[in-house]
Amino acid sequence: MAILMVFSMVPSAFADAVLEELPEEPVNAVVETEDTNPVSNVVEENEPAIAAEEEQETPATADEPETEPTVDPDAEFSEQVELDTGDHLMASQASASIDGWEFKSVQDALDAVGTTDHDDDNDTDFTYGNEVTLLRSATVNPLTVAEGKTVVLNLNGYTLTSSGTVLTNNGTLTILGGDRNALKSTGAEVIAAKAGSVTTIEGSIFTAATNAITAEAGATVRVTGGTFTAGEEIFAGEGAFTVTDGLFSKNENGDVEYFYSDILSGCYNEMAH
């Protein structure tokens, strides 16, 4: 019996010693706690930051169209502008110019002739000249040259069209010549010269539904060239007409052409009266 007890105690003591040397938790728990979990935690914490960086670095697609500045064609406009973009007029928006200053409408330019304005870029005052140059063809409301103004209208190869009188002159007006220049009325005369006005026509093509030029008593009209076609009269009214050149067609009773020599020899009376 003594011998058996010794042997039975030896394994027990050995087992207790081994157990004291073992760690409190299994080895695989240490690996999971110290290696796996911390790594996964770092990844989870950094995911939003990485996603934000990727979103910032994403380039814009090349297919997105670039927006261009636009100008409202119906917006009020009375001051001079330079051709540009943004707050300035685009080329297709400007109708006429004076000394390089461009205007939305021909009437704006006619009104600006001889007036004083301020150049903000150079901080100086200046006065507009008297020559209005068209920059494009346009359909217009009846235009007016105000009393006291002296205007040179350079059609510049373009056409002005109106359903009424194209231009009423109360001042002094000169219309420059040109084979492609044209003034056309689809419902009235082309030029209405008021009493006290002076109108000089050096050329261009005039097409009228009624009279080419109507002049009130006291108005002076000088014609040195041009082509005139009228549904009624070439020259009408009680104004003083002086004609030295031109081609005139009256469509009242068919197409009949008159040269200035015919007018000087008496055909004018037949056409206008």
Strand content: 25-35%
- How far apart, in Å, are the first and last alpha carbons? 165 Å
- Low-pLDDT segments: 1-10, 29-44, 68-91, 264-273
N-to-C SSE series?
HHEEHEEEEEEEEEEEEEEEEEEEEH
Average pLDDT for all residues = 75
User: How many beta-strand elements?
Assistant: 22
Helix content: 25-40%
| Total number of helices | 4
Strand-pairing-aware structural class: alpha/beta
Global shape: globular
Description:
The chain is an alpha/beta fold. It has a domain at 129-272. Helix content is 26%, strand content 29%. Strands 2-1-5-8-11-14-17-20 form an eight-stranded mixed β-sheet. It has a seven-stranded mixed β-sheet with strand order 6-9-12-15-18-21-22. Strands 7-10-13-16-19 form a five-stranded parallel β-sheet. β1 and β2 form a beta hairpin. The longest helix has 31 residues, at 27-57. It is globular. The N and C termini lie far apart (165 Å).
Please render the helix and strand layout as text.
Elements (H helix, E strand, L loop, with lengths): L1 H20 L5 H31 L38 E3 L2 E3 L2 H7 L3 E4 L4 E4 L3 E4 L3 E2 L3 E3 L4 E5 L4 E4 L4 E3 L2 E4 L6 E4 L5 E3 L4 E4 L3 E4 L4 E3 L4 E4 L3 E4 L4 E3 L2 E4 L3 E4 L5 E4 H13 L1
Parallel strand pairs: 5-8, 6-9, 7-10, 8-11, 9-12, 10-13, 11-14, 12-15, 13-16, 14-17, 15-18, 16-19, 17-20, 18-21
Antiparallel strand pairs: 1-2, 1-5, 3-4, 21-22
